[in-house]
Each structure stands twice: as C-alpha cells, then as structure tokens.
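Workshop exercise sheet. Pairs work together: one partner reads the sequence aloud, the other fills in the structure field after running the prediction. Swap roles for the next sheet.
Pair: D.N. / O.F.
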Amino acid sequence: MGKRLSLSKITDYLSKFKYFLISVYCSGDRCVFIECKTPIHQKTFIIYVPEKYDMIISDEISIKRLNFIRVDKPSTRQAEYMNTIKGIIDCDLLSISSNSICVLKNSGAFESFVIREEGGRDYEEFETIDEDEITAVDNLEKELGKIASRIEPTKEIPDVIEKSDDESLSMDSFSASDDVIEKEELIFEDIVEKEEEIPVKEVIKSTESQRDNSLPTMIEDSEIHLGLIYVLVDLTTFFRKAGNLEGEIIDYYEQIEGNESDARETRLETIKDLSTRLDVMTTDKINKIKEEEASLKACLIRLTQFLNQAETLRKKTKGSQKYVDVNSDIDAVYYNTRKTINDLNIQLLQIRDKVDEFLYAYQTSLEDLLEM
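Structure field:
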C-alpha cells in the first residue's frame, strides 16, 4: 500500500502558489490525475499522482470528477497523432478525447484509459447564440465591458490575470496529521525544505500563450477523437518546481502548438506530393488503357476483314461439289473468327466499365474532400 495523500493538503499547496484545482480523474476511488490551471495565464495542465501514493477521493468530497478504467493501448490514430505532436518536447503529455484518456510518457511509453461514465463536470449552461462565432465573441466582449464599467467605471478589463505576491510554502503547511501520514513518512520533506528559496517568477509570453485551453464542456458528447493535449507533470516534479513551473508549461504548450502547425504543413506537402503522383498515375493508367483499347480495336478491324473474307468464301463454295473438302475448314475459320470478335468486344466493354468505375471513384472522392 502506498503512502497516503490528502486532497486538502494538495489543495493547500496549490493555493500557496496560486494554482487552481479544477477537477480530478479517478480510477475507482483513487485519484490518478489532477486537472489544474496556472496562476497567471490560466493554462490548464495535469498533475500525475504516481502509484506509490494513495489519494483516495470519496464520494462525499464535492469536486468535479472524471472516472475511467485502464485499457491495453490507445487507438493507432491517437498514438500516431501524439507521437507527431510530441516530437522532441521534453515532457509527458496527456490527451483527453470524448471517450478516452491517453498518456505519452517522455520515454515513449503509452498508457491508455477509457472514460467509464459521464464525468460530472458541473458547467453552467449558457443560452446558445445563434449567430456567427466571431460576432458572438464581439458581443460577449461588449457585454463584459459593460459589466466591468458598472463595477469599476475607470478600469479596463486586464488582458491577463495578475498574480499577487505571496510567501512560499513553509513546512508548517505540510505538517503530518493522524488522518493523512506519519511524520517520518512526510512526503517531499526534502523538497519542501527548499521551497522558500525559490521565488515565483513572473511569466511574460506571447498572446498565443494566453489562449484558454480548458477542457470543453461535455467533451464526452462531442465525438472528439484525437482530443485536447495537455502537459502532464508528475507530482514530485510539481512539488519541486511549483514556483517556477508556469514558464516551463507555457514553453511546452508553445512547442506543442508549433509541432502541430509543422505537422500539418508536412502532411499538406505529403498530400500535394501524393496528389501529383496520383495525377501522374491516373494519366498513365488512362493512356495505357487507351493503348490497350486501340490494340483491341485494331484486332477487331482485322478480324472483321477476316470474317468478310470467310463469308465471301462460304458463299462461293456453298453447294459446289468442287469445294466439298474445304467447306468444313472455311466454316471452322468463320465461326472461330466470330467467336474471337465476340470475345474482344466483351473485353472492350469490361475495360470501359473498369475505367468508368475508376474515374467515378476518383471524381467523387475529390468532390467529397472539397465538400468537407
């Protein structure tokens, strides 16, 4: 049995550094992941609770919760996507889709989970705005501005949430208690002793870093396959670097954003290359079919001439005792010629059908892509 952790202790520690606890992801009653937001830019990230620690979340605790069960491996598509996005980023990643959670460790190992039930995310429901999304954003900004001016008429809405100064966490806030852990088993005691020496650094990043990356409301009902990718930080690392962690997290997200953009550009170039090759292949295929058709038609022209000659000979020798010996040979050539002509016409019709099917599939596939 692992060392016990109290959710209240973790919450206190998060609060000391102005992090926000959003929800917990549980397997049974054991907390495995903790969803948090950074102090300044409110970037969502995930804390991983290793198996050597037991953080039990009882049903009585009032907190947003997502439940899941472990499975053998992620889908091939999800695994390839996460590998592409990770690239050489030096951190663990976690993605959440509509029905699964996938972890890609820095070592390259995967862990996969299936969301067992709707996760009780108690978001306030807003009335749907039936208008263009950009217009809706503009209207929300105006409404927020009106509200802000009513509350503080001389102040504007800040672009980012400012961080207030606060002392680092002391050992007193992590003291042992009977219902949590023994004093000699104090978790991270060698780390916490150093926390007062680490000031919380101000984080100034690009406007892209300020984009909200919260888990969308009821993602379970949205048929999202690849999921939203989060930086995953193990609990020990978080306790060791809490004061300076936000900058690293934002750096990781900017790398993720860049990798995704680069991956799309690479795939687009690949698609262009494939399109060019497909065009060349299609043209070559049609040209070869034309050559085959031309050859068959040339044969048919010759066979038609043979048939006419055979028909002429049959008429000339019909009923004549002089040509009794050759009549059977002429008939054999005549009927073999007609059969060969029949077979070649069938081949031409089959080729026409195959070409039409190929071009139809090619055309409709491209039209479907253009309509996406």
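Discussion prompt: Strands lie at 3-4, 20-27, 30-37, 44-48, 53-54, 65-71, 92-96, 100-104, 110-115, 228-234. What would you look at next?
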